[in-house]
Amino acid sequence: MLEADVRRFVFSSTCATFGPPERVPIDETLPQRPINPYGESKLMFEKILRWYDEIHGLKFCRAALLQRRRAQRTSLAKTIAARRTSSRTS
Known about the structure:
Blueprint (H helix, E strand, L loop, with lengths): L7 E5 L24 H20 L2 E5 L4 H22 L1
Parallel strand pairs: 1-2
């Protein structure tokens, strides 16, 4: 990065760094408490980038899909499944 004179970096992170959300929708003001190796590794790299910025001046931004749509799809799928089960027993 230094040799190529890169000054800005976009890091693709994940909502997995937050662990189970305290509230929905998730936003970046919530504490990061990952509960799996994937979330932990992303959080570790975010910390490394903060230190790299401090030492070398590489500015970065964290881009994370907070997966609201995924939760909506899961909720919709559960609703559809419940209706199917209900109509079979009626």
